[in-house]
Design a protein that fits this description.
About 80% of the residues lie in helices and about 0% in strands. By secondary structure, it is mainly alpha-helical. The chain has a domain of about 100 residues. Helix 2 runs antiparallel to helix 3. The longest helix has about 55 residues. About 20% of the residues are buried.
């Protein structure tokens, strides 16, 4: 007599949107090291302090370093809610690094000025952007290291668990 099949448990949002894509990448031959590096570098690139350039930056960095494009772009989109506060923080840090006076930061005003008079926009905010980019460049290596090294054992554990489950499944099929 056969046992009745048990319906699989409903998968959570976290499992469907985070764990499953990572596991799918692991099964496609991408190493845990590459996934950890993709998340670390992608997070840093996604927080680049210039609006509109993060997607291109993530794409180019992933292309050059041969990182996973879907993961890096997913991370880029996931970090957009913190992008503006990080930009403000990098502007302030840039002011400190360069010893320049505090400048008012109004994203709406900047947006409208960019589209109305691009030349004036760059004249008014170009150095501020440069200061923020330098602050980002100083912090990015630390950010990458702080993400990569804790993620690496986690990615290796996920890979190991997945390989063990796959081996159990293969053994069950051979019986």
């Amino acid at each position: 007599m056969t046992q009745p099949e048990v319906a699989p448990a409903k998968r959570t949002f976290w499992q469907r949107r985070i764990v499953d894509p990572v596991v799918a990448q692991l099964t496609q031959g991408i190493t845990p090291e590459k996934i950890a590096l993709t998340v670390a570098v992608g997070g840093a690139c996604a927080l680049f302090p210039i609006f509109g350039l993060t997607t291109l930056l993530c794409f180019l960095v992933a292309l050059v370093l041969r990182l996973n494009q879907p993961i890096i772009q997913l991370l880029n989109q996931a970090l957009w809610p913190v992008h503006l506060p990080v930009i403000l923080w990098l502007v302030r840090l840039g002011e400190i690094v360069f010893g320049v006076p505090h400048q008012r930061f109004r994203p709406r005003e900047m947006y409208h000025l960019f589209w109305e008079d691009t030349g004036l926009f760059f004249e008014k905010f170009g150095t501020t952007a440069l200061h923020a980019i330098v602050a980002w460049a100083l912090l990015a290596p630390f950010f990458i290291a702080l993400c990569y090294y804790p993620l690496l054992p986690l990615m290796r554990a996920i890979d190991r668990i997945h390989r063990e489950q796959k081996a159990k499944h293969s053994a069950a099929l051979q019986r």
